[in-house]
Structure formats: structure tokens, C-alpha cells
Amino acid sequence: MEQDSPILEVRRVTKRFPGVLALDGVSFDLRPGEVHALVGENGAGKSTLIKVVTGVYRPDEGQILFNGEEVTFAEPRESQAAGISTIYQEINLIPLLSVAQNVFLGREPRNSLGMIDKARMNRDAAEILERYGIRADVTAPLRSLGLGVQQMVAIARAISVDARAVIMDEPTSSLEAREVETLFGVIGQLREEGVGVIYVSHRLEELYEICDRVTVLRDGRVAHTGDLAELSRLQLIAHMLGRELSEVQEEGATGFGGEHETAREPVLVAQSLSQRPRLHEVSFDVHPGEVVGLAGLLGAGRTETAKAIFGAEPIDSGSVRVEGKDIKTGSPGAAIRAGIAFLPEDRKLEGIIPDLSVRENIVAAALPKLARAGLVSEKAQDDLVEEFMQSLGIKASSPNQPVRELSGGNQQKVLLARWMCMNPKVLILDEPTRGIDIGAKVEIQKLVDDLAAKGLGIILISSEVDEITEGSDRVVALRDGTVVGLLSEDEITESNLMALLAHGEDSGHGGQETREDADG
Amino acid sequence: MDSGARPNKSLDASTVTSWVRGRGVYVAFVVLVIFNLIVTPNFASVVTLSTLLITVSPIVLVSLGVALTIGTEGIDLSVGSVMALASAFLPLYLGYGWPVGLSVALLVGVLAGLVNGSLVAFVGVQPIIATLAMLVGGRGLAQIFAGGQSLPVTDPVILWLGQGRLFGLPAPVIVAAVAVLVVGFLVRRTTFGRYVVAIGGNRSASYLSGHPVRRTLLAVYVISGLLAALAGVVATARLGASDPSNIGLLIELSAITAVVVGGTPLSGGRVKVVGTVMGALLIQLISNTFIANDLPFTWAQVLTAAIILVAVYLQKGRGVV
Amino acid sequence: MSTGSADTEGLGGSPAWRERLFTTLQRRGAIVVLILVVAVSAVVFDNFLTEQNLENIVLQGAFLGLIVVGMTFVIISGGIDLSVGSMVGLGGILAALTVQVSWPLALILPPLVCGLIGFGNGLLIARAKMAPFIVTLAGLLGIRGLALALANEKPIGIGGSSPFDWFGQGQILGISVPVFFVIIAFAVGGLVLARTSYGRIIFAIGGSEESARLMGLPVDRTKVIAYTTSGALAGFAGALLAARLSAGDPNAGLAWELDAISAVVVGGTLLTGGAGTMSGSLAGVLLLSILQNLINQLGTLGSYAQQVVSGFFLIIVVVVQAYLSRKER
């Protein structure tokens, strides 16, 4: 297969955005029947490359060849018609339409009168799903299905158009282990049919499991291309980070330091939080100076737990106590006044207020503290903003710059500043390093350490195993909205954690004991 | 992402366009004034100016409320009907003295705002639909309460609000100016103003920052209702009689135009108080220009429509880096 | 998610049966209410079910109905068209001005011109990415101004009984011509919406425009066609109304955009787009028309009460919609 001419070839493509060189002379090729991993940190240019290939963006320089011929796609529609299918990380389907309608949208089977043949459409859709081992009612509206199933429907749609090249952008981010297996089965079939697959993922294990070759992007340039089998994990990470191999080995992948001194009395006690069907009697506590990791697979109830504690979602029963006092549940205002801060997972949707300035974003939560009788004190506000922009190293042209113009890492720092200027007692961090570049990531991890050292109680949610194992002093493991185990300092290892998430405490893991008080 | 930090000292084309974008409404206003000074006879007179300011006052009042609702990514289409409601109720209770009559008229506006605001903030109805229902139903209610009639208003204090003067300034202009100052203060200096733009900019983020989202939304629609009722009182006082059939008819269109032309984006997250006033002045000046020069008035409407489109088109570009 | 990897009751979604109940209520609510209202009215009012009265109701709704067909497409696509009322005015004036030249022209020109304006609306919305609300609001102002200017702000009479009058006053197979046209419009509109790719794409755009674009669907073209259709139908409604009244009135169709939106929303179409039916919209038009008829029969209240009832009715429907969609979440 090595000798086959490539299906898709990108030659020295350059793409500029105002102030940013997103792609700088990138070359890339995809051969028939290969699974080609595309990796790099955020901001390396992966999404831009995909968007250039699929016609969302036009390259400023360079060529794209498809089946050996030069092509210019003006719209995603044209690349799709040519035979390039894309599965995006955020599921891009229509929630109100049925599964079958989504699969066939825009190319519905017709009857002799030119009208849509609904019966045939449903039948065909069921057949396609069946073929790839996906179980779902094809007449059900898409939004009634779980995220994993929705993602599988998106994949079914993409591969049912007889594509020559399939691009998968983080396809497993909302899938569970079993669904991932199904997906890998599908990829295997595609490979046999001679389809080329571009596979974008942060999960290294997956890359090694199914990819043939890898292209590493860094700062808009190709840092490495070659067979994946010849590359060790550490070498791959080194390419991605642009660091020397020895450096990576020494530091580990995260910026977390050692353990923290913790106090005796818990600062926060969550007692029997229930929100059916998502949470069942979740109980745990956090001590000052302690980082408690909330671990679990997608849908285990981590974000729901965080939102229940913060009052962002109403709960059916349970209580939240801060320094011994019950706080009103279901009200972020009450939680904030009690000293809880919450950095949400989705920075764009729930965090930043894009058109407002850095200044206004930083003081958003502190407004009541900065105001007397409803009047905002400009002086106190500017002092606060100045202090935190400096201490967190927020890179912005001025406090007046709209926050949407900042990089992901700096936006995240602005949100951290928003909460730190409240002097919180408990800080809940939901995926604090997702989607930000590696430099800012390490900085934020260090910051979490510092904050814990200063005596804050921190709840850390992360999908990255090393972030949980290296960053936490204790780990609470969730599965299906229930606490299934608790790891203390010396028990926190990747294998223990995996065992807990996979089987719960009853199955045991390497003979170590789990503490019983977690289930309260 | 250092594009925002780049010093931009040379006066290139893009600087000029972005300057015009931010201040288009002022530029247009100045151009129109100069045009009038040259073309319109007797334009530079106290009478012309005071007529312009008096006629624009009710529009300014309702526009301020509409600007607040648009700032929260909402809208208030019901302002014209609320004016009619206030107009209908004003003469009904004037027999108990002007304070009672005025209070009842304003209270009606507050109630309408409470209904709109509750539907938007607590039930989760889209603002455009909630206030559309009030637009349709409100005027009907006004006519029913007024018995389909126009009732005279004779109370001197109320009449002063529409026809009187203080230090030579027409009373409606004073009322509008006070409202502008109050709303401007609310927007710029208070936490309420911050909540308004935060909710319009990103409602979930605002909620998760502990902002009282529902209360703020409710307040915004109540303020809009109150300002519309005030505009209804002023308009009624100017006429000397209630007129629920015609007072405030289609004023929501002028108000939205004024707000948008004044630089407040329809997508919310920003409230331009001075811009809104200028927008109202601009559209009123357009009508006055056509009338003063004996041009068919309806073409003023066409021109206003074109101005809306241009304003929004330019606004659209501003969001992009 | 322990029940299975590809189960229909996954986390983050609600059970399918609840979804179905919601969808059914959403889609069929207006029809159920319509049947109830007709049944009650037939019992309470003696002359409700007379042929004359029923014909009145249907004819009353016919002109609005044409607009509603276009509006349904636009609203399901996630947009709104506020300019249709003014287009009715412009359409009537164009018909009145050209009928002396040639009566077929008086039928063709209004939908053509208004369709072109709708095309312009569509381009500004789809290509220039301007908000539908504001573009068509400008249309509402500008087109009305144009109609008034063309007519010198006075209605233009259509003298004599040209063949043109037949399109407003004549009958085909025992039904009024405008009613005949509106039936065709609903039938074709319903078919296109439910059974063609174009219809599915309209739903897709309303459901999630970004997704539709990334799925490679022709988003811009579809939107432009929707606004063009909406304009053309409004212009045609204006021409038929002029034929009915034997005059082009520049103020015809004033505030009809509100009635049309009410009818569509009452008919179960989500104002946010992505869901709705043509049959629901038809039920919505008939409901509004019957309400007006009933209030006329009650006599004493007059048109004021009708506005109050329409406003109240609209609120009830959207509150129920909001409640249902919240339940569902």
C-alpha cells in the first residue's frame, strides 16, 4: 500500500488570520487504506488544516490535490460532494430531526413522484446503523439519544456517502469504551475498503492502537511525519511540545508539584447530593489546602456534581456545607457568597462574556463586592484588575481589550482571576486545561498547586488521567452518578484509578483497600 | 493574538472606516444638519429646533427602554401599545387629582412591563413573542378601557408636561433629558448596568458569575414599560386628550431604528445611551426635513429603512477582529 | 449508561416516549383546539355552521393564509419576515397601477416584484449575515413607504369589471378563487415541507445552521428561496386582495405580519426554528379567523376585544410551548 498514490495531498499550504499565522507551509498526504494520525497541541493548526481541506477556509498559499487533481473547495458542500467526509468533535447534526433524517439529510431517497420515500429512508438508515453495530431507533429524534449514540450517528452519516477520505476530529471524546471499540471496528472496515482516514485525537493510546502514520503539527508547521510504530510515546510528546526528550522525562507531562499539607476540618461537605437520574447520594468532603480529584468517564456525573455543589443545577435532595454552615442549594449567588467558586468546563458557552472587556470579565463575579448601593467603584475595580492581570500574567493589550480576542489560555486565566478576586474558600475547576496550549496548561496546573498551598480547598475535574493522578491529594471516583470509590494519597496510581472507573470498589484493585466513608 | 495590541498610528483606510462605524450616527446627523442649513428655509431657528426636540421626546423615552431590553439580547415591541394604555388610563383617574391620575397611568406601564418581564424571565418565552402579544393585546385593552373614545385632559399640571416650559425649555424635552441622564447613569455606573450587558453578552456565564439574571430581566422590562407609559403621558398631555387608537402607533419601529442606528447591537451585550438619543434625533430630523421641504413624506420612510440596513451592515463588521 | 453502549435512553437526552409526546402536542395541539372551538361554536351559535358563515371565515383567512405559507418556511428556517404586511400593500398598488395596461400583468407583476424584494431580503440575511429581524423590519418600513409613495397615499380604484376582478370575487368549483389559491398554496407548501429534500434542509437550518453548513447542505440558497417565496406569496396576496376590493389600498395588510406570525406560532411551529408543520399553520390561520368571526357575532365588543383575545391566545400558546419544552428538558 505504500506505493499507492495519495488520495489527498496538501502542498505547502499557508493560512493567515489577522495577527496569526495559522498554517505555515504545511504539507501532508493521505494514502488509500491508511489511518493517519494528526496531532499537536491546541493552536498547532490541526483544526485550521482540516477546515482548509474541507473548504471552510481557503488557503492563502499552496495547493490541495484530491485524487491527484488540484481542487479548490469554496464550501464544505463541495468537498463532501468530491468524497471527503468529516466528523466534527462537536456533534454537527440536527437535534430535532430523527436519526434517519439526519443520516440522509440532503440526499433523501425519493419515490417515483420525486417525494421523499420515508419508509425506505428509515429502512436504509437502520441497515447502515446495523452494519456498523450501532443500536438506535432510527425514528427517534436525535436529541433524545445519548451523546455517544449521537456521535455514532454522525459517523454513520459520514461513512454512508461513499467517501474516499474520512476526517475524524476527536471522534471518541464523547464515546465510551464499548463505543470506541465499535468505532475502531468501523475504521477497520474503512481501511479494508481502501478509504483513507485522518484521525485527530489527544488520546495517545488510541493513536497507537489504530493509526499507521502520524503527522505532528506545532505552531502551524509540520514538526514530524512518519510511521507511528517507529515513534515512542515520549518521542511523540516531545515532538508535540517542541521540548527535548530528557526534559519531558524529568518533569512528567504536567506542571503539578508534590503533595499539600491539609487541615483537619473540612471546608466543604457535600452530603447525599441527588439529582435523578444523574446523581445518586453523592457525598464527599474537601479540606483546606487539599486538591480533591473528581474522576469518572463521560456521563459519570462529574460536571453534574460540580454544578450541584455550586447551585447551578437544582438538586432533588442533599446538602452542601461550607465551614460547617448549610448553604442554600440551587443558587449560584448563595454558593458564591459562601465562598465557592466554579470554573465551568465550557469556557465559551458558560465562562467568558466575549464582547465585554478583560476588565469587565474579571470583575463580573465581584460586582456586588465592588459596589456600594448599586454603584460600581471604578477605582477599586481597576486596582483589582491590575493586580490579577499581573499576578496571573494575563496577556492582553489593555484591560479594555474584548476578551474574545485573547487566546484560550489567557481567557482561562481571566476566568480564574474572576474567581480569585473573590477570595474563595473552595474552588471547583471543571476541566481547567482543556483546549488551551501546553504552556498555559502548565502555568494553570502550577497555579492550582499554589492555591492549594495557600489553603484553598480545590475540586479538580479532568478527563486527563495524569492530571488527576499527579494533581490530586485525594480522588473521588464516580460512575453512573454514584461515588464508587475513593483513593487516598498513596493509593493514587493510574492503574488503581482505571480499575475503580472500570469496575467500582467491589471488584478490588491490586489488593489495596478503598475507604468506605466515600459512599456516606 | 496580538492584533489588538498593534499600535495603529498611521491614518489608513481601515482606521477611517472603523472610526465611521463607531460614530456613523453622529456623522449622518451632522451631514443632515448641514444639508438642512443650506436647503431648508428657516432651519436655523429656535422654533425649528424646539419642534424637533419636542417631537423626538416620546421617541427618546421609549427608545431608552427598548435599548435596555435589546442590551439583554431581548426586545420590547409593546412600547407603542403601552403608551396607548397609559394614555387611556390617564384621564380616567384625573378626577382624584393629578398625582393619582399620573400614578395610575405610570402604574399601568409598570404592570405591562411586569407581564412582559415575567413571561421572559420566569416562563422563558422569547421576548419578541411575549412583547408581540402585548403589542397586539395592549392597544385593544386600551381602547376597551377608553370605551373607544378620546377623552380630554384638562388638568394644568399634566398639560404642562406636554405643553409647558421651564427656563424656556419645553417640558417634554426636560422629561426626556432627565430620563436620558437616569438611564445613562444606570448603564454606566451601576451594577444593574453591568448585569444588563453581561446577560446580553453571555447569559449562562452571567448566571454562573452569580448575577441575578431573572430579576435583572424583569427590571429591564418594567423600566421599559414605565418609560413607555411616561411617553404616553407626555404625548397625551401634548394633544390635550387621550387617543388610544393613535398614540404610539408604530413607535416601536422608530425606537428599534433609533437604538440600532445608535450603535447598540441587536445581539445584545452593549447599550449605547447617547447613540440611542442621536439615533432618535436622526430619524426625526429625516422626517422633519422631508416635511419642511414639501417632499413626499413617505420617501422619508424609505430613506429610514435604507439607513437601518446600512447601520446594521456596518455594525456586523465590527464584531470581527 | 450502564445499560448499554448504544441505548436510546442515554444520559444527556430524555426518554424517547416523552420526546414523542412533546412532539405530538407541539404539532397537533392547534388542530385539536381548532376542532374543539368549531364543535363548541356549532353548539353555542345557531348560525355558525351555515354555509355563508363558514365561507366568510375561510375567505377572511384566505389572504392571510397565503402569507402564512411563506412565513411558515421562513420561521422553521429560524428566521422571520416582518416585511410581508407591507408587501401586501405594495402588491395591491402594483396591481391597481398595471391592471389598465393588461390584466395578466396585474397578476404577475406583484408577486414578481415582491419576490425580488424577498430575494434581496434573503441575500442580505444569508450572504451578508444580517439579522432577519432587522432586515425585514427595514423592509416593513421601506416597502410601505414605497407603496404609499406610488399611490400618492390614497387607494387606487380599479374601475370596471375586468377579468382581473374574477380573481378576487369569482368562484371555481363553487369556492371563491382566493380560497382556491390558498388551498393550493397550503397543499404544495405542505408537500414541499414534509416530503422534499428542500423541506428537510429548511428544518435542518432551523435546527442548527452551523451543523447544516458543515453537513454540506446549501444553506444560503435555501434561505434565499424561503424569503423569495415569502415575498412572492405576499405580493400575490396583495394582488388578490385588490381584485377582491376592486381597489389597491397602500395601507392594505397593515400589521398582517403580526397576525401571520401569530398563526404560525399558534400552529405549533417553534419560533426558534427547526420544528413545525404546514397543517398546524393552516389550523392557526383558521383559528384566528374563527375567533374574529365569533367576536363579530358577539357584536358588542368589536375589534378591540379581538385584539385582546388574539394577544391573550398567543401568550397561552407560547406559555404552553415553553412549559412543554422545559418539561422535555
TrEMBL record, chain B:
Keyword set includes Transmembrane: yes
Keyword Cell membrane tagged: yes
Chain segments annotated as transmembrane: 24-43, 49-70, 128-146, 166-187, 218-241, 247-266, 273-291, 297-314
Its membrane topology: Multi-pass membrane protein
GO CC, alphabetical: plasma membrane
Keywords for the protein's UniProt record, in alphabetical order: Cell membrane, Membrane, Transmembrane, Transmembrane helix
Localization (cell): Cell membrane
InterPro entries assigned: ABC_transp_permease
Annotated GO MF terms: transmembrane transporter activity
PANTHER family: ABC TRANSPORTER PERMEASE PROTEIN YPHD-RELATED-RELATED (PTHR32196), GALACTOFURANOSE TRANSPORTER PERMEASE PROTEIN YTFT (PTHR32196:SF19)
The name this protein goes by in its record: ABC transporter, permease protein (Cluster 2, ribose/xylose/arabinose/galactose)
TrEMBL record, chain C:
Superkingdom as given in the UniProt entry: Bacteria
Annotated transmembrane regions: 28-45, 57-75, 82-101, 107-126, 133-152, 172-194, 224-243, 263-291, 303-324
Molecular function terms, GO-annotated: transmembrane transporter activity
Membrane topology according to the record: Multi-pass membrane protein
Pfam entry (one): BPD_transp_2
Keyword field contains Kinase: no
CC per GO annotation: plasma membrane
InterPro entries the record matches: ABC_transp_permease
Descriptive protein name: Ribose ABC transport system, permease protein RbsC
Source species taxonomy: Bacteria, Bacillati, Actinomycetota, Rubrobacteria, Rubrobacterales
